[in-house]
Specification:
Blueprint: E1 9-13, H1 15-18, H2 22-28, H3 33-42, H4 54-61, E2 71-77, H5 81-93, E3 100-103, H6 113-116, E4 120-123, H7 126-134, E5 139-142, E6 156-161, H8 171-178, H9 181-190, H10 202-214, E7 221-228, H11 235-245, E8 251-254, H12 261-267, E9 271-274, H13 277-283, E10 289-291
Parallel strand pairs: 1-2, 1-4, 2-3, 4-5, 6-7, 6-9, 7-8, 9-10
Antiparallel strand pairs: 5-10
Length: 302
């Protein structure tokens, strides 16, 4: 039977999201392609430290077994193919079963997300993240300075999501930012039985939910959380939307504008996704964080 990625949760990830390559990236950003490639070859047998997305990748790959492989991780990197040698060697050094990689030598790898049927794209490059989101793929810009501890909760994969402009569209957030909190609450109560339009991360949550159902007997379990600034009574439309989608989250924090950081520290996520830079900056000490560059909060930066 020919190899296929059909039916798998496919995570496409850049080299800088998986490994700490910030010192090498400083050379890359100078535009001296030859110097960068030479540095990577010089360090070929020197594996870089693990990066912000390493704990998530390590745990997801533990869901695979000799008989079933529901998860596929693919390197999708602006690195050149020669520099890619070091990335594959580093993956092997850390015991990561990663066999596929795409190296585009300075160009965005987002165009390969379609043939990969990617469920998630993680990158430190904002332009690549925006391109992936515009193409309809769940994508986030990782914060390399995020706290990342692969040994924390080794038998659980914990993923937290913001609601509006992440799991859901920014429809309601536009009302809040364009009018007022009172108008936002009125808008949501009137539409309490009307499911929110899908946001960019609905496909990833759906794929994760399917994997969660299949992982019940696995030694590694998946736990999801909705961490949102919404509060009662606006919370109900969010929950009803998830029910309409046939999805349950394990935990939900309706914070009414309280800082998310302390609650995320209590949850201890392997990854948290939010659309707003302020929330992401407040979350980096709690765990790996990625900004979803989508919706009204990001329009000024497009």
């Amino acid at each position: 039977m020919s190899p296929t990625l059909d039916g798998k949760l496919v995570v496409a990830i850049s080299s800088r999201a998986l490994f700490d390559l910030e010192s090498e990236n400083a050379v890359f950003e100078t535009g001296d392609d030859g110097a960068y490639r030479a540095l990577q070859l010089e360090r070929l047998d020197d594996p870089p430290p693990t990066g912000v997305a390493y704990p998530l990748v390590q745990k997801l790959l533990r869901l695979n077994s000799a008989t079933t492989q529901p998860v596929e991780v693919v390197i999708a990197s602006r690195n050149d193919p020669v520099s890619g040698l070091r990335i594959f060697r580093a993956a092997k050094h850390y015991g990561l079963s990663i066999e596929r990689g795409i190296f585009t030598r300075g160009r965005s790898p987002h165009r390969y997300l379609a043939p990969l049927n990617a469920s998630l794209f993680l990158s430190a490059n904002p332009q690549d993240v925006r391109a992936a989101l515009l193409a309809g793929y769940p994508a986030a810009q990782v914060y390399p300075a995020s706290a990342a501890d692969a040994a924390r909760n080794p038998n659980e994969i914990r993923i937290a999501f913001d609601g509006d402009a992440v799991l859901f569209s920014d429809q309601a957030e536009r009302v809040f930012k364009g009018e007022s909190l009172a108008r936002f609450v009125e808008h949501e109560v009137i539409r309490i039985n009307e499911p929110l339009p899908a946001g960019p991360f609905k496909p990833f949550l759906v794929a994760l939910h399917g994997l969660q159902s299949r992982a019940r007997e696995n030694t590694v379990q998946i736990r999801t959380a909705l961490v949102t600034a919404r509060s009662a009574p606006a919370h109900e439309r969010a929950i009803r939307t998830l029910l309409h989608w046939g999805i349950e989250v394990d935990e939900a924090c309706f914070l009414g504008g309280l800082p998310k950081g302390p609650f995320l520290k209590a949850f201890e996520p392997d990854f948290f996704f939010d659309d707003q830079a302020g929330h992401c900056e407040g979350a980096v000490s709690a765990g790996p964080t990625g900004q979803v560059l989508y919706g009204i909060a990001n329009e000024a930066n497009t």
